[in-house]
Amino acid sequence: MARFKVGVQLHPQATDVNELRAAWRAVDGLGVDSLWVWDHFYPLYGDPDDKHYEAYALLAAMAVETHHAKFGALVTCNSYRNPNLLADMARTIDHLSGGRFILGIGSGWFERDYQEYGYDFGTVPQRLRALAAALPVIKARLEKLNPPPVQRELPILIGGGGEQVTLRLVAEHAQLWNTFGPVPNFAHKNEVLDEWCARIGRDPKEIERTVGIGSDEIGNVTAYVDAGAQHVILMVGAPFDLGPVEQLLAVARD
Q1: 171/160 Cα distance (integer angstroms)
Q2: Where residue 254 falls among pLDDT bands split at 50, 70, 90?
Q3: What confidence tier does 1 reach under pLDDT thresholds 50, 70, 90?
Q4: What span, in angstroms and rounded, lies between the C-alpha atoms of 247 and 58?
Q5: pLDDT for residue 124 is more than 90
Q6: Is the pLDDT of residue 2 over 90?
Q7: Rounded CA gap, 216 and 207, in Å?
């Protein structure tokens, strides 16, 4: 099996900030390649009114409390922030971390966030068009900011598997791409992304392929890697048992 990177997504729900901070410091200390939170305003499972925290405030704290892992939101909802502002936030967090930030972004899907915070939910095509419009704005703003990001080209990760629009946007704009299983789904979407790269003349090797898995899928890691995954991101909820993280790291380092 080919070597692969290991990431961890810490769910910012049903917990408190001290527990989150302890978890990301511990995970960073294990030597993972990436750390993530998600960008929502309410829990995605369990008690819908449980504790929850905003992503970018957490990411600024993560920037100064970790030292090794790349990190970001898996993924930022494009609808929640003006694209020029988002670029500036990303650049600033990149500086706080010494150049480890990844701008993960997607079109958005969680309707409750939109309703409660006053955003226009619209339709899937509308949200995808908004993402397509925002990506060039973000990239242009990153080029104008003074100082620029620490990283010469701040990496963009696009999340999603839509074959007509999302994967085309990945081919056009992203350095990383994330989607989910099961393995046949990941393998198929990976092939579609390669096809979009061929259509627009992009070298598919320029896009790092990441996949989000639960702890129950660690046994499928070999199949994911064989299907093209280069970076496996384990999704972990509170109380943040790191045993599965250590298990995945052992597989990656075998």
Answers
A1: 12
A2: confident
A3: low
A4: 26
A5: yes
A6: no
A7: 27
